[in-house]
Amino acid sequence: MRSPKIDELDLKIISHLQENGRIPVAELAKRLNQPENTVRYRIERLLKNGVIRRFTALVDPRALGLNVSAAVMFKVDPKKLDQLLEKLTSMKDVTNIYQLSGEWDLIAVVFAKDIQDLHERIEELRRAEGVKEMNVMITTRIIKSEYRYVLT
Length: 152
Hints:
By secondary structure, this protein is an alpha+beta fold. Helices cover 36% and strands 20% of the residues.
């Protein structure tokens, strides 16, 4: 898939939306000194091209009672990788999944209510088809959890 062409105005729009995804288009157009229709069109194009995947609320998991998290690293049978990825992506407790180069194949971030709940999730993952080895690292403190990207 080719990357869509992104210009300076697109980057400014994205930057503002990363800061506040609920900003009215009229307000955003005013801040950017652009016609509202231009900004609306650009946002729609960025959505259509997958540059902006979706608009969503960023929630503090601990405010929802998800007080424990862990990074889980996997060594995976290559023939079962797609099957394991399908399982991981379907699990509501798994928030991020990254495929890696090097010794470990995948890393996933898992949230749970408490240590017992986390244990149950880990055991479910350990039994998943294709898992050859796992390394679980419980989070002791979240220093930074950010979903904004530096654009300039």
